[in-house]
Write a structure and sequence with these properties.
- With 181 residues, the protein is mainly α.
- The protein is built from five helices and three strands; from the N terminus they run ααααβββα.
- A three-stranded antiparallel β-sheet has the order 1-2-3, with no helix packed on it.
- It starts with 25 loop residues before the first helix and ends with a helix.
- Residues 1-24 are annotated as: Disordered.
- Keywords: Membrane, Transmembrane, Transmembrane helix.
- The chain crosses the membrane at residues 33-53, 65-86, 92-111, 149-169.
- This is Membrane protein YphA (DoxX/SURF4 family).
C-alpha cells in the first residue's frame, strides 16, 4: 500500500485511465534553470555586499553611479531567482523590447563623455555608464576596458529584464481584463 492509499496497480480499477506522465524539463532545461538561479543568487550576494561597503565609505559620499549599478544588480538578481514564481510569458514583443533596452543602453551611454568618480581617471575623455568602457587622451588611441564593458552589459541587461517583465505582466493584465469582459 502506498502513502496515498492505492492498494494495487492502476489496472485493478477499470474506470481509472492511466495518466500520461508529463516530461520533465530535460537536461538543457534543468541546466538553464540552475544557471539562472546561480547567477541570480550570485548577483544578490555581490550587490548586497558592495552596497553595504559603498554606503559605509569613510569619506561619507558614495558614488551615485556605483550605488545605482549595484541596486539594479540586486533587483536583477531577485528577478532571476523569482522568475518561476512570477510566471511571466513575455512573448516576442517582450524579448525584443528587453534586448533593445540592453543594446541601446550600452550604445547610447557610450556616446556622451562623462565624469563619473569611478574608472579610468587617467584618461581625459571617458565614455560609458555606469562604468567607463571607452577612454582616451586627446589625440591618442581609444582604450576599451573589457571588464567594465561586461559590467555595463550586465547592468543594461538587468534593466532590459525589468522592462521585459513589465511588458509580460502588462500583457497578462490586459489578457485578464479581456477575459472578464
Amino acid at each position: 500500500m502506498s502513502a496515498v492509499g492505492n492498494v494495487g496497480p492502476a489496472t485493478d480499477h477499470p474506470a481509472a485511465e492511466p495518466e500520461e506522465d508529463e516530461e520533465g524539463p530535460g537536461l538543457w532545461g534543468s541546466f538553464g534553470v540552475a544557471l539562472r538561479l546561480i547567477v541570480g543568487w550570485f548577483s544578490i550576494a555581490i550587490a548586497v555586499l558592495n552596497l553595504l561597503v559603498e554606503l559605509d565609505r569613510s569619506d561619507g559620499t558614495p558614488d551615485g553611479a556605483y550605488v545605482f549599478f549595484h541596486f539594479i544588480v540586486l533587483v536583477g538578481g531577485v528577478l532571476l531567482v523569482s522568475l518561476a514564481w512570477i510566471g511571466a510569458r513575455p512573448g516576442i514583443l517582450g524579448y525584443v523590447v528587453g534586448a533593445a533596452v540592453m543594446v541601446a543602453g550600452v550604445v547610447v551611454s557610450a556616446i556622451p563623455a562623462n565624469d563619473t568618480v569611478c574608472c579610468m581617471t587617467a584618461f581625459s575623455e571617458r565614455h560609458g555608464y555606469p562604468f567607463t568602457i571607452l577612454a582616451r587622451d586627446a589625440g591618442s588611441r581609444w582604450h576599451v576596458d573589457s571588464q567594465h564593458l561586461i559590467a555595463d552589459l550586465l547592468f543594461w541587461g538587468y534593466l532590459g529584464l525589468v522592462v521585459l517583465l513589465t511588458v509580460a505582466l502588462t500583457r497578462r493584465v490586459a489578457g485578464l481584463e479581456d477575459d472578464e469582459s
